[in-house]
Design goal:
12 helices, Rossmann fold, 9% strand, Arc Repressor Mutant, subunit A
Amino acid sequence: MSWRKQEAHRGGLEEDGRLEGRNGPLRTLQRVLKDCLVKARMAKFSVSLGCTVVIEPTVHLVDDDDGFLLTLSRLLRANGFRVETYSSAVAFLAESRRDEPGCVIVDLSMLHVDGRDLQSALRRTPDPLPVVFLTCQANTASTVRAMRAGAEDVLEKTTEKGALLDAVRRALARNQRAREERLERQALQQRFNALSPREREVLGHLLRGRLNKQIASELAIHERTVKVHRKSIMIKLDIRSVAALARLSQQAGIPIPESTFTDGNGLGNSR
């Protein structure tokens, strides 16, 4: 195969014998576009298979001191971090942000909406980012309140570079662990979502430690039917014992309403 055909093959182009050297930039652009398309398809395919797509974490800097904001952003970028800056807590909260990894470095004392207000707002979100507070002069009371509310650290703005970078790394690691736990919990919840309404009722009784005969009496169904539902639950959740079922339910955060344990009215026919 000639070099021209090899080049056309790598770029996804059909060699027609008429491509000239002046079309080199066009072929390069076509190769780039094809590579982008392939990567996009692969990313979509990975998501559909439940694969992990690596997203670079972002360090969000929030401070109403533009000069300090610029200096800190340069420091973090020089140390390999992806950085976004905001001049106020309101600006940060107004930004549309998907479930992406990262952390927040915020000035503890700002006008209008301060760092503690921002921390409180983050705690109400489904995926709260860890917070590192910076302050011109830390005091024990504010530090204790911030740490009790879940802050990763409270540092003075004059702290040494190494301490700040360590705090950022800890915050990002904490966020990564929380994301992994959340994804695992969501995967477990999907397995529980596969249970039928009747299987959920049987599940509630199993978690209370009731025997098949007791469950059958409570739900007014045959004991053999209970055994069928019990086996189906074990298969769908990929477990083999009630003890494993209890652990899995706890990990998934699955609430079992009290009514499912006591109210068997109108449930004479199993599904």
